[in-house]
Design brief:
Number of helices: 5
Number of strands: 7
Distance between the termini: 45 Å
Strand order of the largest sheet: 4-3-5-6-7
Strand content: 15-25%
Order of helices and strands: EEHEEHHEHEEH
Bound molecules: zinc ion
Radius of gyration: 15 Å
Helix content: 25-40%
Length: 173
């Protein structure tokens, strides 16, 4: 697997290393996660970028849309495909604050996303190396480069704060 944790290079790199641009785009994804939390959604954000140009950004929207598929990554991929008028998105980088789930990795594979950059691991549901590794599955014909651990601490603490607040609310409620 071409993933590499906390390994930085000055320029964009297809070998699985994060660039300074990656950190900037991940900050935008993190801002989407913060906005999602303010709407009562699980704080996950996603950004889709082509040639250093923003195509779409979104936070989770499943609760507000009553849509189990409205994860941040899916919403951003849909908007990107609509913007490009193409159901496939070769060459794009998908940024996600949290390791994508099976559904979102499936969508990224269908879209032919070239590169995935994510923040923190999801040991319970991540499909880019934690529970499954769909990015490097031998039987799937599309491979994507994966960079993990970009703004990992910030992305993870958003989730921990959100769930801690929810537990506190349910105890006092
Ligand atoms: Zn997902």
């Amino acid at each position: 697997m071409t993933s590499n944790r906390n390994s930085w290079s000055a320029a964009n790199d297809s070998a699985g290393r994060a660039s300074l641009a990656d950190v900037g785009w991940m900050r935008a994804a993190r801002d989407e996660a913060v906005a999602a939390a303010e709407r009562g959604e699980i704080p996950v954000g996603a950004v889709v970028v082509l040639n250093d140009h923003l195509l779409a950004r979104s936070g989770n929207a499943s609760i507000s849309l009553n849509d189990p598929t409205a994860h941040a990554e899916i919403v951003a991929l849909r908007a990107s495909a609509a913007a490009l008028r193409n159901y496939r998105l070769p060459g794009v980088t998908l940024y996600a604050t949290v390791e994508p789930c099976i559904m979102c990795m499936g969508a990224a594979l269908h879209a032919r996303v070239s590169r995935l950059v994510f923040g923190c691991d999801d040991p319970k549901g991540g499909a880019a190396g934690s529970v499954l590794d769909l990015a490097a599955h031998q039987r799937l014909n599309h491979r994507m480069t994966v960079v993990r651990g970009v703004l990992e601490a910030e992305c993870g603490s958003l989730l921990r704060q959100f769930f801690a607040a929810r537990r506190k609310a349910s105890r006092s409620g």
